């Protein structure tokens, strides 16, 4: 996809953060937008910020498989085609493997993994039918390396990466005109830490403050990097200098990155 003008773009989790910034950036490129979120107020604010673009908003919980499939049909009916799907909606959890509850683990997997998987599969026939489609799945740097107290989020984001990289190869082998990108943001200054669930012995306040300190990139900058990556058909889109650093560390050190993360975590997470 070399040009986004008049393309129909679907963005989940568009009521805040990266999803909102993506909606605004895509509106500026001339996209027609199908925006969804569970947060209707945030979604309405995003729509208001996409001035000049054709925008429809949908209340959608991405952890609801049947709702996602119904949404895909609805968007295809409303717009007549679908070109770009960005599975962005996500949540975070900070809890050790020993301490996290089954309920919190399931919550993360249902939204961060199954939301992406169902979003991809539900829209794929429409993207293929468009003749010029693109799936963009939002993983994380935590889809590249494991980090203490992020096992559930790590599991979901590694799964998104594996699922997405497999799909990209399938689309090429099947000669389908659907591009596929996996996005790995570093720390982006959004609401994600405020909305996160925490294990019962976590110091939520300290973790949220810590996140605000290390989140280097604005959502607007992140959205511009992602849009540029889409236009260049990048398979892996790294967002922010921290993401580039973590990706490099992973390539150079392999699994030997772990003692470095341990050292960082001892000072910052186990205090
Ligand atoms: N902010 C970061 O540092 C960072 C880093 C790496 C990856 N990410 C990923 O980026 C994506 C966007 O996160 P963000 O940082 O913009 O966070 P955010 O909290 O600002 O926005 C997330 C949006 O997803 C929505 N959402 C939550 N649960 C939902 C559900 N069940 N169905 C539909 N929508 C739902 C929220 O209402 C919110 O509007 C997520 O997948 C997140 O994991 C974020």
From TrEMBL:
SUPFAM superfamilies the record matches: NAD(P)-binding Rossmann-fold domains (SSF51735)
Ranges where the Ketoreductase domain occurs: 7-191
Enzyme Commission code(s) on record: 1.-.-.-
Entry-linked Gene3D superfamilies: NAD(P)-binding Rossmann-like Domain
InterPro entries: KR_dom, NAD(P)-bd_dom_sf, Sc_DH/Rdtase_CS, SDR_fam
GO terms for MF: oxidoreductase activity, acting on the CH-OH group of donors, NAD or NADP as acceptor
Keyword Repeat: no
Domain of life: Bacteria
Protein name per UniProt: Acetoin dehydrogenase
Source species of the chain: Marinobacter salarius
Lineage: Bacteria, Pseudomonadati, Pseudomonadota, Gammaproteobacteria, Pseudomonadales
């Amino acid at each position: 996809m070399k040009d986004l003008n008049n393309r129909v773009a679907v963005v989940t989790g568009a009521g805040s953060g990266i999803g909102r910034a993506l909606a605004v950036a895509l509106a500026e490129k001339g996209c027609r937008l199908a925006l969804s979120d569970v947060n209707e107020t945030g979604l309405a604010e995003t729509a208001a910020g996409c001035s000049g673009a054709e925008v429809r908003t949908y209340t959608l919980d991405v952890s609801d498989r049947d709702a996602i499939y119904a949404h895909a049909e609805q968007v295809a009916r409303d717009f007549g085609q679908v070109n770009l799907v960005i599975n962005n909606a996500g949540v975070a959890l900070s809890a050790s493997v020993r301490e996290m509850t089954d309920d919190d683990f399931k919550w993360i997997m249902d939204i961060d993994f199954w939301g992406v998987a169902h979003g991809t599969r539900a829209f794929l026939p429409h993207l293929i039918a468009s003749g010029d489609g693109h799936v963009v799945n939002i993983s994380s740097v935590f889809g590249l390396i494991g980090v203490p107290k992020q096992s559930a989020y790590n599991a979901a984001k590694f799964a998104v990466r594996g699922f997405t990289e497999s799909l990209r190869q399938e689309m090429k082998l099947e000669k389908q005109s659907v591009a596929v990108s996996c996005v790995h943001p570093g720390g982006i200054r959004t609401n994600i830490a405020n909305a996160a669930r925490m294990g019962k012995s976590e110091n939520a306040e300290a973790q949220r403050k810590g996140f605000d300190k290390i989140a280097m990139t604005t959502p607007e900058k992140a959205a511009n990097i992602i849009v540029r990556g889409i236009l260049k058909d990048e398979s892996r889109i790294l967002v922010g200098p921290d993401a580039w650093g973590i990706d490099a560390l992973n390539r150079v050190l392999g699994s030997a990155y772990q003692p470095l993360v341990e050292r960082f975590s001892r000072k910052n997470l186990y205090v």
